[in-house]
Model the fold of this input.
Amino acid sequence: MLNYDFDWSVVADNWDVLMYGAWLTIKISAIALLLSLPIGIIFGLGRIAKNPVIRFISGAYVEIMRGVPLLVLLMWIFFGLGQVLNLDTYWASIIGLATFNGAFLAEIFRAGVQAVPKGQMEAARASGMTHLQAMRFIILPQAVRRIMPPSASQFIMLIKDSSLVSVIGGIDLTLRAKSLVASSFRALEVWTAVAVIYFVITFALSLIIRYFEKRMMDKEQ
Amino acid sequence: MISIKNVNKSYGDHHVLTDIHLEVPKSNVVALIGPSGAGKSTLIRTINALETIDSGEIIVNGISIHDKKTNINKARTNIGFVFQSFNLYPFKTALENVTMAPMKVKGLSKEAAEKRGKELLTQLGLGDKFDAYPGRLSGGQQQRVAIARAVAMDPEVMLFDEPTSALDPEMVKEVLDAIRSLANDGMTMVVVTHEMGFAKEICNDIVFMAEGKIVEVAPPSEFFTAPKTERAQEFLKAVLNH
Done:
């Protein structure tokens, strides 16, 4: 058995600190998420573009981002790009998360668009729509239905991955927890509380997305 | 109305269309028949540029379809196309399927597009299906919605690529009836079909294709009773005597 006297007072006493950390995590993740959406759309569509140069650049972006550990990417953005552009830890964290997450979303979006049967594009084009109109009115609305479930998983990954920004000093729940552990030596209690908070955030997100998915399905049948 | 001149197309070494010449005058109905792999579907799909051609020219209502200077989107509004597999938009109701292009492409108001859409669907016996999603319709009903969708753009030419091949036998008739009524209204049409009786009844000309070439063009009365070419004789023997 674990020979350890739990003392949860450290969590109770510092609840406001943890909640503020949770709020920062939500904020960083939400901004990163919003920025990763256009990145995902642009590079996802870029991967299936007719132009081979655009296809190559998009493919290279996705593969490199997916191949590099997020930790390394964050370091590189903060100490490399950050020095050039004079980024603080807050924006370096957000850019790191957004570019990383964007690459994964690009793959999800690409697969979603390609899963729409070829006949849909043909029917739309045969009726006189431009490629862009066909994409917007016929293909993307159908792709979104296929994109939702894997995107939900990806968003949850993003929230959990955001804990890594603490290594470059990005102030979030994890960094708050680290300093709390350093001052109180109550590692198990603090990290357990942190785990519960991450779970509550991601589970709530999960439920919200499921609600929208269901509403979409109901509309169709 | 449709003029196909010296059209060639190949995939690598494989010649799918060889020296195709075909004239379809206004209000004429032409059936493309022949064995599978003859190039019928490829040919009909070149008429609205769903397929490219390597050489030659296709003119529909005075517009050269494969000319790079042609606005193909505009040209296509004048050419209705019905697919073998319907290709209805599954997330839109029957009526929305029909009103989509008139609103988005022609800029019709919602009211005008819906009025016309309801008219067409009612004519095709789908008066009670305006709000049904394609997934809830039978194959025959889906194909009739697809026909209404194409006709809603008021095209001068209609192209049908094996419109009844994906249907259960008992639904073939309702779709053929819809096509027949368009023919009676004087629509210029090209139909790829395996329905010989139907071709015989409504077509001005039968175009028999094999191995990427047009082998014989004749009115049905001649083609089905006295085909001139040996290839057509073989084909007819195979499809009519079973």
Notes: The CA atoms of residues 81 and 159 of chain B lie 5 Å apart. Strands of chain B lie at 2-11, 14-24, 29-33, 55-60, 63-64, 79-82, 157-161, 188-192, 205-210, 213-218. The mean pLDDT of chain B is 93. The first helix of chain B runs from residue 40 to 47.
